[in-house]
User: What shape does this take?
Amino acid sequence: MDTTMQQGLQESPLCAAVFMGDFNTGKSLLINALVRHDILFISRDESRTPPVFIARSDSGEPLYGVRQKGESAVEINSHEQFLSTRHIKGAPCDSDALGALVPDMPFRRLAFVDTPGASTDDNKPAILKPAPALDNTLFVLTTTLEYWPARHTMALIKEYYAQFPGRFIIAANMTDQMNANEIRRVRDRARQRLERHGITPAPPLFPLSARLELARRIPGDEYRKRIKTEVRELCDAGFDAFRVALYEFEANASLNHAGYSLDTLLMSTLATAVTMSEKGQDA
Ligand SMILES: Nc1nc2c(ncn2[C@@H]2O[C@H](COP(=O)(O)OP(=O)(O)OP(=O)(O)O)[C@@H](O)[C@H]2O)c(=O)[nH]1
Ligand SMILES: [Mg+2]
Assistant: This one.
């Protein structure tokens, strides 16, 4: 490989899907469902985890790492350490980025970024601004089917749509909590509703359930059995369409790198852009 090509490799920004949205909307569970592993910390409380960068590993067991604030090296962690790295009341978090390499994950080149959920005034959403490091990035606003048209969600949608046209989609999670008529109604009218707010052409909105998707691979799963067939089918179809949108993004991205290491993930210009935008969000 000649030097120009190598430079090209280094400069090509990471191809990634960045998940953002309110806390407790299921961003982490959604990524677990996509990569088909229980990698990320899941909680009903605000998780206050630093941004997590996830990509495929070409071998063996999952690998976890952490980047400490101000350091340029990655430390390897156990899964337990990785799961407990977050802001816990009274104990500030010294890490600004976490990484995981997942074997057999269905996406070969697309990396995933889980960002801390936003909630109250003191934890406003860190909205990313266009930058070369984000040129290969798809933004996935994660909300719930029930609350997606809330005023502040609509404001976030507008903002991301304006900043990243054509690279922005909406995952309307927890669709398993709604009835079939309601799901179809939202699904069929979301476009109109977005366009009424001046968001034209509307980005795709996928009604889905991370919870049901994770259980899909478990034969006879009790949770899936409890959900009405019609609802389950709508959730599965929504998730399949969402997965296809991610595969299409991956297939169309200009990519030329061979594989990821925790270093290439956590020292990437994308990781820098995401962690910088989280600055000032610390507890
Ligand atoms: N019923 C149902 N519950 C879900 C679904 N997705 C997530 N949950 C639950 O919602 C809660 C929050 O999920 P997380 O994935 O931790 O949410 P998050 O958006 O990552 O939250 P933060 O990291 O705090 O921003 C957990 O209790 C999940 O089990 C879903 O599709 N259906
Ligand atoms: Mg989370």
Q: What stands out?
A: The longest strand covers residues 95-103. Residues 169 and 245 are 9 Å apart (CA to CA).
